[in-house]
Write a structure and sequence with these properties.
single chain, 367 residues, alpha+beta, six-stranded antiparallel beta sheet, three-stranded antiparallel beta sheet, 12 helices, 15% strand
Amino acid sequence: MKKSVLFCVLLIFVLVACDNEKNDPVEPPEEQELYFPPTTNNSWETVLPEELGWNTAALDDLYSTLESNGTRAFIVLQDGRIALEKYWGDNFFGTAFTRESHWYWASAGKTIISFLIGIAQQEGHLNITDRTSDYLGAGWTSMEAGKENLITIRHQLSMTTGLDYTVDDLDCLDPECLKYKADAGQQWFYHNAPYTLLKDVISAATGVDYNLYCDQKLEAVTGMSGVWNFTGSNNVYWSKPRDMARFGLLILNKGKWDETEIMSDSDYFVEMTSSSQSLNPAYGYLWWLNGKQKIVYPGLPIAIKGQLSPDAPADLIVGAGKNGQFVDVVPSLNMVVVRMGEAPGDVAVPIEFHNEMWKKLNPVIGR
């Protein structure tokens, strides 16, 4: 817990410094039809920044900041086409990192599980108001039955299970690690274990292993080609950078891939990408939301005044993972931004770097 306390102190200083910053008004772009790359090969249409009227003189500053902060992959999609794509450094095998290299999403992969839960509900396999114990069985926690049965799938999606966050290992999936602290829905804390158990909910509800379900319902339709692997107790998605861009494009188009409607449950999609509860309005169903008046960050038990990234567009939604894995979706700009790489500093969740990335990107895109 000492590291968590140190993180909290550092984060408070960052947020106090950012508190008075405001987003500049953004003029909505002209409506543009989204381009979708083919799913059977790796070709992808590009558009030159000059054609978009972007300030290419500001690119060196953006790229220098990204490279000096351990970035491996950076992609910007405008209207679905690749406007910026840059790679640096080496992959895990010591060779140059390219668009064919694989990297981990860390907690940015939570957004995929959220999407798959929506598909499972759409297909009638589950309802997010169902009790988690309906799928994991009684005794999946060490709570007494009455308290355990308060926890629903929706609480897992919104980080409001009420499980004790003072345990030694927040990743531990064993019942003895999942203890009562508050009634479900009464506290918000970024707790990995109840999220990770959503994979078992998907498998139990659908009768299909969650990895195969992801292949069938998401990857086969979008051309994504990642894979889930366990690192300790954590369920981590690995893919090429363009796979992350594909997922961002799908979310930008509200769950529809070109003419294929993957997520037809529009109510769930709106819930997924909107405030899921009032304790932390900057959190949807495993997605982070910009432009809110207060936020609870990982490692903190209370909300702090301020927003996720003051220099980013207010309507930004973010899949965010350890060491700065980001998939940013900006409906007002018809834009997707992907960043994969090493940690840009000593903080596991580099919120300040995410905002700095947007500070450097803004002059490029004329914002």
